[in-house]
Amino acid sequence: MLTLILTVMITLHPIGYVHNKCMESMTPERIKQEISEIEILPEYAEGLKSVEACRYLDLVFYLHQNECVQFTTPIRTGEERGVFATRSPNRPNHLGITTVKLKKREGNKLYVEGADALNGSPVLDLKCCDTSVYEQENIHNAIRVDSPRIDIVRNILSNETKELLLKSAQLHGHICPGLALGVLGATTVMQKLYEQGEDSKDYILTVEMQNCLVDALLFVTGCTPGTHRFQEGDPARMSFSLKNREGRGWEVHLKDSNRAWIAKQVPASFSVAEKGFAVLQLCFDDLFEMTELSGKSSEN
Ligand SMILES: [Zn+2]
User: Fold this and answer.
1) Which protein residues have a CB closer than 5 Å to ligand 1 (ion)?
2) How confident is the model at residue 135 (pLDDT cuts 50, 70, 90)?
3) What are the tens digits of pLDDT across the range 216-247?
């Protein structure tokens, strides 16, 4: 088969420029500490509509100060690597791509953290950062610092209850059916909350039980005594609720029949931890009763 390879000249037009105090002599780490202004040219400014919705952006820029190309280059450990296995600026097309954090926008100017572009670098593109391909454990630490519960939120949205049970057990000290019940109950309520586009930071968890479930409820909802979004009620009620200031939310009651149901569904020969994982496979409605609370209007 004949393959025709065309050498194409590509002409790129800057959409803007980077302004900061960074000169060529500075290390990338030092440059990243600076706040950079990205000025988008007026003819491209319409493309910034709703850019505030992106907390992280991929900044594509031209490494205008670098003219040389090195196909191999030593990295910090001294190991010699090919240029495509490094972030060296001495690359064939002199393109820089860096994920930056958007701090604020003023008209056609964006102020970002984490850019390693020198002052005057032509900006070729900006894209909303997509981290969906990253493995859970590889979520960038900068994102973790900003949103420490991001792993838990992803687990809830993806219904990864096994993962949530393992993580709750780091707090609880062991895996047991009670902890699994708490994971199941709290995950279901949190999914309802996220469906409404809300976050638990505006909600208070009221726990009316004193058992292993409580630790999973705290962990999954993020409503802890330290955040002042946790309170205890009558432990005899065997229920919990997640409510906002208006009293809107959900109340979840653990059915009296839960033990008998679990005993029927989960083999007695299982270890306590195995029983915990098995409980996650059970149907929420067979174990709990959930009531949606409509808040103030319902009290009238
Ligand atoms: Zn337990």
Assistant:
1) 176, 178-179, 212
2) low
3) 999 999 999 999 999 999 999 999 999 999 99
> For residue 75, how far is its CA from the centre of ligand 1 (angstroms)?
48
Ligand 1 centroid to Cα of residue 197, in Å, is 32
The CA 175 to ligand 1 mean position distance, Å, reads 6
Q: How far is the CA of 183 from the centre of ligand 1 (A)?
A: 12
Structural domains of the chain in order of their starting residue, each with its CATH number: 16-130 (2.40.30.70), 147-299 (3.30.1330.130)
Cβ atoms within 10 Å of 170's Cβ, excluding its own: 9
Whether the pLDDT of residue 272 is over 90: the answer is yes
Reported as a single tens digit per residue, the pLDDT across 12-67 is 999 999 999 887 767 777 777 789 999 999 999 999 998 988 888 999 999 998 88
